[in-house]
């Protein structure tokens, strides 16, 4: 009986520390119905934005993406794992925070992106412009098409 209990504890510890389902790690949160969000995994045209297609090594694209995000005004990378990244961007005047989530799919050579306002209804296109500016930076670095 004692052996089963110890085995159970070890198994649960290993399970808790495992990376989890890689398929779940590739999913971005869905956009709300409000027009203040864009996502490359959105299924409707109002929220959809094309993912970034990596043209070279995925590692180079990931490094360039982090540099480009860090170079954006009032943007801070707050979390990063091997395949995911979360950043926060604050507006200049009122300091509204937008959340930026990024997932890299090494096999498909795609970077999926999502940018959404935390508050309010409309962002007047700020999140879409931010992601397109990021796309432009990465294209200039020759890491995406």
UniProtKB/TrEMBL annotation:
InterPro entries: DUF1499 (IPR010865). Pfam families: DUF1499. It comes from the Bacteria. This is DUF1499 domain-containing protein.
């Amino acid at each position: 009986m004692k052996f089963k209990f110890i085995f159970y504890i070890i198994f649960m510890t290993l399970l808790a520390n495992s990376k989890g389902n890689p398929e779940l790690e590739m999913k971005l949160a869905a956009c709300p119905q409000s027009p203040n969000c864009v996502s490359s995994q959105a299924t409707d045209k109002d929220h959809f934005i094309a993912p970034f297609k990596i043209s070279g090594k995925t590692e180079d694209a990931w490094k360039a993406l982090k540099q480009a995000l860090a170079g954006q005004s009032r943007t801070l990378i707050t979390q990063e794992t091997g395949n995911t990244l979360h950043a926060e961007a604050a507006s200049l005047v009122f300091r509204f925070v937008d959340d930026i989530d990024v997932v890299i799919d090494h096999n498909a050579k795609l970077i999926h992106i999502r940018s959404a306002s935390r508050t309010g209804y409309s962002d007047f296109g700020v999140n879409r412009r931010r992601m397109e500016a990021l796309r432009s930076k990465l294209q200039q670095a020759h890491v995406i098409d």
